[in-house]
Fold Chaperone protein CcmS domain-containing protein.
Amino acid sequence: MMTFNNNLPQKNQNNWQHQLDKFVKANQKELAALAWGLKLENGETDETIGIDLKETPKFVYCSKAAIETLNRNVDGKIQEILGLIDGYKPEIEVLMIAIGDSQIKLVYFQPEISPPNCFEQLGHNLDALLEILETGMSQFINL
């Protein structure tokens, strides 16, 4: 009789989440700069920055309507994420939603210096920040 290890998918999912945590910790300033730069580019919007980890990691936008629909589909299990999105203060904190292996993970932190100052200090344009971070994620996170 063949048995399957039901813990294996959970272990793999936790692995990408753990790798993402390490990446975020090592790249807080760059992520804060990116979040602020995208805020400046897009102005007021109902979209949240997402990190799509399927295949090649890339930054995407998640509409509030899509996140609300997901929340309904999972019986309100991500209601807290919607609350954080509603109260998000981009001038002092970073909020992104990572999507991988049929799970989502909240990336939420307050950097040591404000996102506007991170953007100013790094001096990169958005394309350069996107390339640096997406390349870094590709090397750092293995799904």
